[in-house]
Design brief:
alpha+beta
């Protein structure tokens, strides 16, 4: 799974009660295999995240699922 790359972020919403941004990150791998993972990121953290860091979080979430 180390060849996975972030393909898109389809859905972004803000959960006021949980004070988190909810993202749906889509990853693509070899042979066009698609994977989707949901991420919850705190507002104070998301503003400092790069696309590469979001990609790493998505890959980690997929491995732990």
């Amino acid at each position: 799974m180390s060849e996975l790359k972030l393909n898109s972020i389809d859905f972004i919403s803000f959960a006021v009660a949980g004070n988190t941004f909810k993202l749906k990150a889509n990853l693509i791998g070899p042979n066009d295999q698609f994977h989707s993972v949901n991420l919850d990121i705190a507002p104070n953290e998301i503003k400092n995240k790069t696309i590469g860091e979001i990609e790493k979080l998505a890959i980690q979430a997929l491995h732990s699922a």
